[in-house]
Fold each of these.
Amino acid sequence: MAAGAAHAFEGPELYQGEKALYEAAQKEGMVVSFDTGPTWANWNAQFNAFKKRYPGVELVYNDLGSAATVVALDKARNRPQADTAYYFAASALDAVSKDVVDGFKPVNFDKLPETLRDPDGKWFTIHTLNVAFLVNKKLVKEVPQSWQDLLKPEYKGSIVYLDPRSTGQGQVIVLAANFANQGSMDEVKPGIDYLGKLQAAGNVLRVVGTTPYAQFLKGEIPIWIGYENDGLKAKYLDGMGDDVAVVVPKDGSAAAPYAISLVKNGPNPNAGKLWLNYIMTTPGQVTFAQGFVRPSVPGVELPKDVAEKLPAAPQIKPIDIAKATAQKAAIDQGWARAVLNQ
């Protein structure tokens, strides 16, 4: 190796074979990571930690969105540009069906519940996002603790959430309400009926098509049924402090899996594997938690200050992404009927 060139890191391996894989990745020199926008899920901190541990392996990324990532992989299937692809897990199923991803089982793969991984490793969940009530305490006297609470007359015209017909988050909200009302992945009517009741009670201010984070920060939304990480970001990073309460409803919630894959015939396969392994190690999983998203690997020990912000919430159930995809049409039509009378 040339004098001054990056060398294998000091200290013990994070997993068996890490140094050998790093040396192979160095020969490729870079990893191209699709859809890992730096401001989302703490990717920027992951990039920095990866580059510090593996000098000589550059990281190149873009921020396309889940569905657009699969389209891009499909278009470039003869000359793939990407090494890895990150997306909402429903898009991972789409990538598998289009045969643009490869099987790879990273560190800790076997610890994941079966619903959070492809049996052949063509995708696996790296973190989840959970439905929570994000409550502006300046606008709401009594902080709701459950889906049943949201039906109370005191929350008239207070609630905003995303449209399930056009957003993944909206679909997950229907499933969260469904779990809280004794529904299951095979029977989504209880969740749809609940949202119909919430609408009939006059408690919904509006249903929106894009994330209303900026409006929430400005104090324009009393209660946003959204993702827990947005509430924690508003609280700890973006100035709302104790004016925001982040409540995982006690009667049930849902966890949306976010997955990643090794791209089939990607230009830098060893660097791609090094990157996927790293984000599934304990340091990688802790970095996600520092960005307020919950790690997918069970039993990862979090630093105390991080664990306090993400308290144990056994009422959060992971959604089965294959069943959720199969239920999409039923949710779209049922919701439009129950909520919009269409």
Amino acid sequence: MTSASRSQRSSAWSSLWLLTRRDLKVRYSTSLLGYLWSILDPLLMSLIYWFVFTQVFTRSVGESPYIVFLLTALLPWVWFTGAVSDSTRAFLRDVKLVRSVALPHWIWVGRIVCSKGVEFLLSLPVLVAFAIFSGAKVGWGLLLFPLAVIMLAALILGIGLIVAPLVVFFRDLERAVKLIIRVAFYASPIIYGAADLPAFAQPLAWLNPLSGIFALFRAGFFPDQLNWTLVGASAIMTLVLLGVGVLVFRRTIGGVLKEL
């Protein structure tokens, strides 16, 4: 690798970090509660689902403590949905910057993945607090947490690289993505585990790359949720989506810049 290419890569990563910080500052600068919104949203959602599935209905899915079971998938889900949804406007919300700043164009998607990832990390104290409060047991599976973060970031980046340029050409895709996300919530093992699905619905878990990733996030508290075959299937699908995303992005970015 030449010194010029090393310098370009270093500049690209520095720019990615600067844009990520800019996104976070803009998001929180006009907010009274600031980053606490990153905690309040998943916290309220978790409390609602905890109440419904433990106090109203007889729960036959998941594991106890159920609030921890929920949060170990719900917090990553908030990262996933927020980043994918924002990726639909990755180029449209900063048209002037995209046109005028000489940066690798994937950075406009990457900054969204990173900023939402930082918000995810900032929301983890909620999980820690409920784990302590409910007496959840922690096991060796917690060491798999970084792997889960890397896989989820790669999956989001792959989907973002597909969605971001295509929305420029097909504006209805933005609404379609939001609709698919709503459906995907119930099709993903968040309020239930992959093993809780009936036999006829098991293919849903194997076709959903989030299934194995959520299993990794839960492994530290619920080792029985860890299914390495399912994790392997999720890893393969994540790599495929990332590869497709790179291919789609490279082939469409020229047209995107002309369209903007």
Amino acid sequence: MPNQHPEALAGVASGVVAAPPAVGLPDVSTVWLRVFLDVARHGSFTVAARTLGWTQSAVSRQISSLEAALGGGPLFDRLPRGVRLTEAGRVLVPHAEAVTQALHGAARELTELREVAGGRLRFGAFATADAALVPQALAAFRTRHPGVRLTREEGITPGLLKRLDSGHLDLAVVSTTGRTPLEPYGLHHLLDESLYVAVPAGHPLAGATGPVRLGRLADADWISGSSRPEGTLLDAALRQGFRPHVTHVVGEWTAKLGYVAAGLGVTLVPALAAASVRQDVALLPVLDEGAPARAVYAATARGRSLAPAAEAFLGALREAASRIPCWGPGGTMA
């Protein structure tokens, strides 16, 4: 095998074929590629210069720089009238078109992100927020930004925060119920949620006007999602000095209200769920002179930039939250 390099012969003898040398990534300006495609399209430096608003010598310099960056071979044959692509030039055309098309696509998608005309939004919410707050915000958001791809999850606050930590959610609607630490997150306050107590329609308090103290129901049977009041909405009863007797542990809201309607006890209903209460149940606003029952936030991951779609959805959540009726201190409607 004449004229073979000794290292190549060693590779053949050992049964291993050496890989061809790696080709380095050329340091090429996208401006050069744009000029190259214009010259190729028009077959003329002069016409390309006129189209670009440049001088012919400026176009020629750009092509010379591109040729040098790609190894020095000519991309065009200079003819008496105009130019013609060389074989190297013909090879480069589809690659130059792919690069410029990809950059145009990137610029278009980035513009859509800025204008909230595209991109994606992944958010989650706790179940009660899905009763009114999230649907109202989502309806407004979709009307304004129909091109955004939406993904929604439902869960409890700790699980939603884990999804936020792992990067699977851009935003999560969470609450302070359960005493989950929220300090590590970016918090956007939506509302301080007041409470209602749901009683059967025939209950002696059903006709009461204005907020009631929970102490008036200290001897009642209570329906709750947990047998222990700590870390639940029934913290409000503990603040008023009594420990409620939980007779029925029921997790789902419509089921809780079914138990109330049947006369099996009373339950607390947050303001976010008040609009969905059935007609055979009476809702009484709770007078809680201490801290609000719970605060509701839109949580985001600290240190991560909030995408324009998430910013827009946050605005829609705030608008929806402003329409949720809440009782302020002293029993006045906030």
